[in-house]
Each structure stands twice: as structure tokens, then as C-alpha cells.
Task: inverse folding
């Protein structure tokens, strides 16, 4: 099938070439016969001139332009173009000599007036060569632009796939980290046979449903993500009992606002994991608000002096995800001073 298509394509190209050179022959006959009534001699001269024109044109479009001009081998292009001009010029002189000897029987006055003019004959040959070469250059440039666009699209697709793979890898890091903390909490309740265990299992079930069916989406509703955070906080409240003092404030949350899933939770996880109980209490304050197409997230928790809370899977992970998803569209500030670990995130809400 492919072979047949290739053969048909070549036949089609051959027919087009034959038709084109027939048009050129007609043009030469009309061009050189404008001042001569003997169209038979003009046609003979044009037929003699055709192989010279065809050879010059094909050398230009199949050798000089693609092999030397397009590849920017300009010195060789100039050298071989000069060779082509010299040889074709010599053959044009032969065609004029043919008109004198064969068509005019060595009678200069009987020659076709057009064929006496070397400049006119040369112009006719090179005019065809230049026009065809110009179309060849245009075609090559269009093909180059098309190939460049295809290459750029492939590069963009590859970059997009790499980013998707990196994001999926980062999400895979979040899941075990989150589940490890939650299962440790449940294990402690199971050992104590606490009455809160069933409620904790229900909360965990909601969280797992979120992880399995929502987190794979590129963006989720901010309200859903906040509800997920609330479920997580409720689990931690059960674990810390009276040693936890946590405040979650949400303000002016727009319903249709969307963010990347699991974007804020690592900060909250980090506050529980690295937070320090002081005076019998772990204090955590969280504020989430929206204003002027920006999301403002702030969290602080009690910590020890020089506590390196910024390390670990959670915050490293979130930094990478922010760079991938919100490059140049976020501001992240992390401070650890006065026994408080503070994180401030300002996020441009992407449409």
C-alpha cells in the first residue's frame, strides 16, 4: 500500500513537471517569436534551449539551494553558482550558434531577431531559473517553519509530561507522609481502646476518599481543600486531646476559587510534626482568606529556638510544587523566631 502511494506520488510529480516545462516551452516560443513570423524556427530554437534551461534550473533547486544555501555553506554556494553560470552561459552561446548555423544557414540577416540578442536569450533562461528557485526557497522555508513548529510542540509536550511525572512523584511523597502520621494516631487509640476510634476511622475514610479521587486532579475547589484540612485537624485533636490549642480562621472564601490539591496541608502537617508543646500546650494558628484574586495563607506554631522546622518532606515538597504550578505567581515566607515558627503564602489565583 505504501509502495503504491509512493509510486502514485512520483507519477503525479512527474506529470506536474512535464506540464510546467510545456508551459515554459510555450513561453519561449511566444517570447522569442514576437518579431519573427517563422514559428517553426522559433519552436526549434526554443526546443534546443529547453534542456539548458531545465538543467540549470534543476541544478539550482536540487543542489545549490538545498545543499549549500540552506545549510549556510555560502562560499561553496557562490563557487558552484559561478560554475553553473559559466557552463549555462557557454551552452546559451551554443544555442545562438545553432540558430545561426542550422536555422539561418550561416546568414546572419536571416536569423530570428530575438536570437541575435544574447542578453535577451540569457534573460529568458535565467528568468525561469530564478522564478523556480524562488518557489523552491519559499517551499523549503515553509517546510522548515513547519518542522520547527512540530519540534517545538514535541519539546513542549515532553516538558509537560516531565512536569506531570514530577508532580505525580511529589504527590506520591505526600500520601505516605500523611498516612504514616494518621495511622500512628489511630494505632495509639487502638491500644487505648478509645471510644473515639470509630469517629477517627470515619474521618480517615473521608480523607482517603479525597486522596483517591480528588488529589489526581490538577486543581480542586478551595472549599473542598479546606474541608479536607478540617478533617485532618479533627484527627489531630483526638490525638493531642487537651494539649492542643488550634485556631482555624477562614475569611471571604469565594466558592469557585480553585487551587492545586494538597497544597496547604503539608504546612499544617509540619506544624503538628515539628511544633513544640510549651506550658503543656501546642499552639497553632491558621488563617486562610481571599482578596483581589489572591489567596492568603498564614500559619504559626510554637517551636524551640533554632528548630529547623523548614526541613523534611512536607515543606521541600510544597516548594517544588509551587515552583512547578505557580512559578512567579506566589510569595512564600518562612520565619522561625521568638519561639514561633511562621509561614506566610500569598498565591495568585490562576484562572
Result:
Amino acid at each position: 500500500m505504501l509502495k503504491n502511494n509512493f509510486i502514485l506520488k512520483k507519477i503525479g510529480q512527474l506529470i506536474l513537471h512535464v506540464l510546467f516545462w510545456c508551459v515554459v516551452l510555450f513561453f519561449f516560443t511566444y517570447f522569442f517569436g514576437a518579431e519573427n513570423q517563422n514559428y517553426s524556427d522559433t519552436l526549434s530554437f526554443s526546443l534546443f534551449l529547453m534542456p539548458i534551461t531545465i538543467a540549470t534550473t534543476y541544478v539550482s533547486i536540487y543542489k545549490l539551494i538545498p545543499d549549500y544555501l540552506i545549510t549556510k555553506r555560502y562560499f561553496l554556494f557562490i563557487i558552484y553558482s559561478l560554475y553553473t553560470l559559466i557552463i549555462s552561459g557557454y551552452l546559451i552561446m551554443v544555442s545562438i550558434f545553432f540558430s545561426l548555423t542550422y536555422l539561418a544557414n550561416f546568414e546572419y540577416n536571416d536569423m530570428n531577431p530575438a536570437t541575435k540578442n544574447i542578453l535577451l536569450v540569457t534573460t529568458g533562461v535565467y528568468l525561469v531559473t530564478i522564478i523556480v528557485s524562488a518557489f523552491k526557497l519559499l517551499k523549503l522555508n515553509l517546510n522548515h517553519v513547519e518542522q520547527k513548529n512540530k519540534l517545538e510542540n514535541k519539546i513542549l509536550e515532553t516538558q509537560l509530561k516531565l512536569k506531570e511525572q514530577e508532580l505525580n512523584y511529589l504527590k506520591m511523597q505526600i500520601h505516605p507522609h500523611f498516612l504514616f502520621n494518621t495511622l500512628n494516631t489511630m494505632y495509639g487509640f487502638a491500644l487505648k481502646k478509645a471510644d473515639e476510634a470509630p469517629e477517627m476511622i470515619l474521618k480517615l475514610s473521608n480523607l482517603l476518599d479525597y486522596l483517591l479521587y480528588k488529589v489526581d486532579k490538577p486543581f480542586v475547589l478551595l472549599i473542598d481543600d479546606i474541608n479536607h484540612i478540617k478533617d485532618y485537624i479533627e484527627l489531630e485533636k483526638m490525638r493531642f486531646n487537651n494539649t492542643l490549642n488550634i485556631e482555624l480562621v477562614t475569611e471571604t472564601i469565594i466558592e469557585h476559587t480553585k487551587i492545586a490539591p494538597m497544597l496547604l496541608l503539608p504546612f499544617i502537617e509540619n506544624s503538628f510534626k515539628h511544633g513544640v508543646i510549651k506550658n503543656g500546650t501546642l499552639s497553632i494558628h491558621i488563617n486562610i482568606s481571599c482578596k483581589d484574586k489572591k489567596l492568603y495563607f498564614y500559619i504559626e506554631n510554637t517551636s524551640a529556638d533554632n528548630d529547623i522546622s523548614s526541613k523534611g518532606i512536607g515543606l521541600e515538597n510544597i516548594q517544588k510544587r509551587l515552583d512547578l504550578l505557580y512559578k512567579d505567581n506566589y510569595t512564600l515566607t518562612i520565619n522561625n523566631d521568638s519561639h514561633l515558627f511562621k509561614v506566610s503564602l500569598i498565591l495568585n489565583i490562576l484562572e
Residues 134 and 168 are 51 Å apart (CA to CA). The radius of gyration is 40 Å. Strands lie at 220-221, 244-251, 258-259, 282-291, 294-302, 330-337, 340-348.
